[in-house]
Structure formats: structure tokens, C-alpha cells
Design brief:
Elements: H1 3-12, H2 14-18, H3 23-27, E1 34-39, H4 45-61, E2 64-69, H5 74-87, E3 91-94, H6 103-111, E4 116-119, E5 133-137, H7 139-153, E6 157-164, H8 170-183, E7 188-196, H9 201-214, E8 223-226, H10 229-241, E9 251-256, H11 259-266, E10 272-275, H12 281-294, E11 301-304, E12 308-309, H13 314-321
Parallel strand pairs: 1-2, 1-3, 3-4, 4-5, 5-11, 6-7, 6-8, 8-9, 9-10
Antiparallel strand pairs: 10-12
Helix pairs in contact: 5-6, 7-8, 9-10, 11-13
The structure holds alpha-L-arabinofuranose.
Alpha-L-arabinofuranose (AHR) binds near residues 120, 121, 228 and 256.
């Protein structure tokens, strides 16, 4: 898809629909702003889309965006933040790979009076003044949505295997918590196996293969819950290679709503996905523009929606999104 077409898609399509941005702020320009974005890496289709959308949203607003790819390492993110501070950027966006260990470096940003905005993941800190706002989904809610849907689907009876995200990351912690809370009132729903696939397709496939092996060909598995779609795509492949029918023999529910998952649902290989908007940067740019222009302090949390998608709309959703990832 051309840049022009993609830009139009964002303006009129799904992203504009799911993230409510005031019209006035969309019009805001910030020609002189330079923002440093410490991105985790490109472990998933969702992450790559977040980076792509951030570049487009920056360009639309005339912002200079410097992106540092941390290749999944917190130490690289810390180095990038220090480099952004040394360069005197106007703001720093941080997608934190793990939740802990940020106080020192964010203290340095605060000391330098550079506002920090968290994108898509949260941090564990006792000092909320270390960041200005967080643009994230409610990750506990995502787990709830997935768990409640599965409970209905199985009449509260199901042995579940879980593919966790990156150990120590806020979505892995919170999506697990939310899902466990949702199934807690169903005594015959149990997570029988749970392991990290690190949010990658390869990780999801490998872990699912080991689960299938350990259960004599997947005999005991009623459903897979994956903390993201990429791991589920890997798991679907593992199920097929083991002679199982994903989406039929084993129910699937995961999070992100990337085009490949809609394709899998349309093909009958998957059952449900909870949407995570890849447009985290747009609302963050608007927040920083308003702050720089008029001192408007944004709310501490800018929440993006967590909509459940099912196979009935999968083909239409796929057609709508396939070119933007
Ligand atoms: O923090 C958001 C998560 O990170 C997405 O669900 C996953 O795909 C990504 O890697």
C-alpha cells in the first residue's frame, strides 16, 4: 500500500474509530518538536505496526521522530533514553520491555525536564511523576474479555494451555491476571500448562509443540490462550503439524487482532481475538503538543479499547487491515 493510501486508511478507518482523538488536536501541528522513541524491537506483527503508525502520525504532525530499536533488551532502552536526554529532545516515548528497573533513568529524564510518555506497556514504580502519561490498553481487562468469552464458549468446562508473553512485561503479567480472574468462578476451568513464548511466532510454536507432546498428542487440551496473536499463529502451525484441527479440536483465544489472525479465523483455524490498537503514538503526540502549546497536562492514563472479534466478521476485518501491517 502506498504511503498516501495508508495515511487515508488511518484517517478514515479502524484506527480513527477506536481511538477517540479530538478534531482540534488532530489539526495541531508541531513543526519544531523532536521526540525520541525507545521501541522494544519487532517481536510481533503488532509491534511492527505500532512503529509504522508512529512514523506516519509523526509525519502528519511535522514532528521529527527518532526511533531507537532496543532488540528486546532493557539495557539498550536505557542507553537510548540517555542518548535522547543528551540530545535534548522535547519528549521521550518509551515502550518498556519489562515493568521494573526504570526509576533511575526516568529520574534522569525528569531532572532534565524532558516529559516521558509510556506506550503500550506499563512500569512498576512508586513515583508516578517519572512519566507524564501512559497510552495503553487495560491489559487486565483484555485477559477478562478472553476468559469470559472462553467460559461461555465451553460452558465453564475446559483444560487450558497458556502461552505467556515476555517474562516480566506488563502485558504478560496483567493478561495472565485478568484471565485467571475471569475463570476463577468456574471450578472446571483450569490452566493445566503455562509457559512463555516471548510474544514471538517461533516461541509460540515451540512451546505448543512441547505441550502437545506432553499431553499425548494434545488429548487433554480443550483450549489455548495466548497473550498475543503471533504466538497463537505459531501454535496453530504446531497443532496442524501434529494432525490436530485448531479452531475445532482445540479452541483458540488470543490478543492483538493482527491481519493474520483474522485470516486464520476466516479460514476456520482460530476462534477469537481481542483488539489492541497499534495507534499508541497518535494520542501521545496530541498529548505532548497540547502540553507544549498551552501547558495542558494529560490524564495519567489514556486508555485504548479492548474489543473482542469473532469469526463472523473476520473476512471483512482482514480486508480492512491487511495492507496496513
Ligand atoms: O505490549 C503489547 C504487546 O507487545 C502486544 O500484544 C504484543 O504483540 C507485543 O509484542
Amino acid at each position: 500500500m502506498s504511503f498516501k493510501k495508508l495515511t487515508k486508511f488511518i484517517a478514515i478507518g479502524a484506527l480513527a474509530a477506536v481511538v477517540a482523538v479530538p478534531a482540534a488536536s488532530l489539526a495541531a501541528k508541531a513543526d519544531s518538536l523532536t521526540i525520541g522513541f525507545s521501541q522494544i524491537g519487532s517481536e510481533s506483527g503488532w509491534r511492527a505496526a505500532e512503529t509504522k503508525v508512529a512514523k506516519i502520525e509523526a509525519q502528519q504532525r511535522g514532528i521529527t521522530l527518532k526511533i531507537a530499536d532496543a532488540q528486546q533488551k532493557q539495557e539498550n532502552q536505557i542507553k537510548a533514553i540517555r542518548s535522547f536526554i543528551a540530545q535534548g529532545v522535547d519528549a521521550i516515548f518509551l515502550a518498556p520491555v519489562v515493568a521494573t528497573g526504570w526509576d533511575t533513568v526516568l529520574g534522569e529524564a525528569k531532572q532534565a525536564e524532558i516529559p516521558v510518555i509510556l506506550l503500550d506497556r506499563n512500569i512498576d514504580t512508586k513515583d508516578d511523576s517519572l512519566y507524564m502519561t501512559a497510552v495503553t490498553s487495560d491489559q487486565v481487562l483484555e485477559g477478562h474479555v478472553a476468559g469470559e468469552w472462553l467460559a461461555k464458549q465451553t460452558n465453564g468446562k475446559c483444560n487450558i494451555v497458556e502461552l505467556q508473553g515476555t517474562v516480566g512485561s506488563s502485558p504478560a503479567i496483567n493478561r495472565k491476571k485478568g484471565f485467571e480472574e475471569a475463570i476463577a468462578s468456574h471450578p472446571e476451568m483450569k490452566i493445566t500448562r503455562s509457559q512463555s513464548g516471548d510474544f514471538t511466532r517461533a516461541g509460540g510454536k515451540e512451546v505448543m509443540e512441547s505441550f502437545i507432546k506432553a499431553t499425548d498428542g494434545g488429548k487433554d487440551i480443550c483450549a489455548v490462550y495466548a497473550h498475543n496473536d503471533d504466538m497463537m499463529i505459531g501454535a496453530i502451525q504446531a497443532m496442524k503439524e501434529a494432525g490436530l484441527k485448531p479452531g475445532k479440536d482445540i479452541i483458540t483465544v488470543s490478543i492483538d487482532s493482527v491481519p493474520d489472525m483474522f485470516k486464520a479465523m476466516a479460514d476456520g483455524d482460530a476462534n477469537a481475538t481481542v483488539e489492541l490498537s497499534p495507534d499508541m503514538a497518535g494520542p501521545a503526540f496530541d498529548a505532548i503538543i497540547a502540553y507544549k502549546k498551552s501547558g495542558t497536562v494529560p490524564p495519567k492514563w489514556i486508555q485504548t479499547p479492548s474489543t473482542l472479534h469473532l469469526p463472523d466478521t473476520a473476512q471483512a476485518e482482514y480486508d480492512k487491515r491487511k495492507d496496513m501491517y
